[in-house]
Amino acid sequence: MSHVSGIHFLQIPGPTNVPERVLRAIDRATIDHRGPGFATLSLEIQELIRPVFGTKQPVVIYPSSGTGAWEAALVNTLSPGDRVLMAETGQFAALWSKLAKRLGLDVEVIPGDWRHGADPDAIAERLSADRAHAIKAVAIVHNETSTGVTSRVADVRAAIDRAAHPALFFVDTISSLASIDYRHDEWGVDVTVGGSQKGLMLPPGLAFNAVSAKALAASRTATMPRSYWAWDEMLEANRTGYFPYTPATNLLYGLLEALHMLHEETMPAVFARHARHGEATRRAVRGWGLEILALDPREYSNTLTAILVPDGVDADALRATILERFDMSLGTGLGKVKGRVFRIGHLGSFNDLMLAGTLCGVQMGLELAGIPHGDGVTPALAYLAAPATAPQLAAV
Ligand SMILES: Cc1ncc(COP(=O)(O)O)c(C=O)c1O
């Protein structure tokens, strides 16, 4: 390996750039997780993390990747053979439904074109037809990281209510948490799934379940086998600031620092920053003359943009050129859209000049790869350089 000067641009949609403050917080001696210092750390985290989920209810923290929290949501609340309604919005929704099937659940998938979010009307229709209430849960991905499409969670909640259906409601916020407005309590979500490596600005390794009272009640009668993921022992130990097994202590140091940073910036400002960077990126894409994969402007993601390349162009070859020449990693196309799209991550610890550098890197890469394109950087910079007035923020 040879040294590459300057900072690497990690513009995949997670894991994201870990800020210095978080790195320094993690870089401390590990303490006794059964000693008094640990309880102080963990109780403060529990207080500060709830508002990030928009909840006053418990948030379970696992030492795991996000996939573990997907499994935890299902095994804590459901019984073998229970029916779960899922919306196929992209690769991550497909993976969650595959996981559910492997657990022995009866998964009903509403098919999608990977260019739209979960369709509230299709969900309402399916639930209304389910007079016997065979469907025990509805599960959607808030921000589909493979497509850059953000589902309208409040509208899906309204659809469930319209059908007067008692199903539990699960939402994956792995690439929206602490970046795009999210309200676990207000939107009546029963289990919110989260991960550390995106909006929370941490390395991978922590995953979350925010749990409603209804989900907790369901967990008392649900019979799926569970042990590592079981909420009961975790919530019991958490009451006094401890864990039933060894927690990821150093990642928790980092989490506390990240939570302080988010609250210092304030959550509304964090959401507005992501909205602004999402809009600037979309202006760049239009300037390049390329197509945004997301089709409905109401569903544009503010944390990443998936961009279609012209027919005959290999998106991964473009990514390889940009990595080689400019030391910038962009997200690959996943599943059905492999080779057809590349993804720009604009989430987490990020600012205007990082976005400007990112967009310049993409534009230079298009030039080098010989892909016909216009100037996307100038309209994006003009947008970023406009006075950050309230109307500008409201417009995005
Ligand atoms: C929306 C979404 N859900 C789930 C996952 C899976 O999480 P992990 O890879 O941490 O297990 C990811 C990973 O990128 C994701 O973006």
How does this model look, in words?
- The protein has 396 residues and is α/β, with parallel strands linked by helices.
- 43% of the residues lie in helices and 15% in strands.
- The chain contains 14 helices and 14 strands.
- The protein has helices spanning 20-26, 36-53, 66-77, 91-102, 120-129, 153-162, 213-221, 231-238, 249-265, 267-288, 315-326, 352-368, 377-385, 390-395, and strands at residues 9-11, 59-62, 83-87, 106-110, 135-141, 143-144, 149-150, 168-172, 191-195, 207-211, 291-292, 304-308, 328-330, 341-345.
- Strands 2-10-9-8-5-3-4 form a seven-stranded mixed β-sheet, sandwiched between helices. It has a three-stranded antiparallel β-sheet with strand order 11-12-14. A two-stranded parallel ribbon has the order 1-13.
- A hairpin with a 4-residue loop joins strand 6 (143-144) and strand 7 (149-150).
- Helix 10 (267-288) packs antiparallel against helix 13 (377-385).
- The longest helix has 22 residues, at 267-288.
- The radius of gyration is 21 Å and the shape is globular.
- The chain starts with 8 loop residues before the first strand and ends with a helix.
- Bound molecules: pyridoxal-5'-phosphate.
Helix content: 40-55%
* Major beta sheet summary: 7 strands, mixed
Bound molecules: pyridoxal-5'-phosphate
Supply Rg: 21 Å
Span between termini: 43 Å
What is the N-to-C succession of helices and strands?
EHHEHEHEHEEEHEEEHHHHEEHEEHHH
Sequence of strands across the biggest β-sheet: 2-10-9-8-5-3-4
Return the average pLDDT rounded to an integer.
97
Q: Please report the total strand number as a whole number.
A: 14
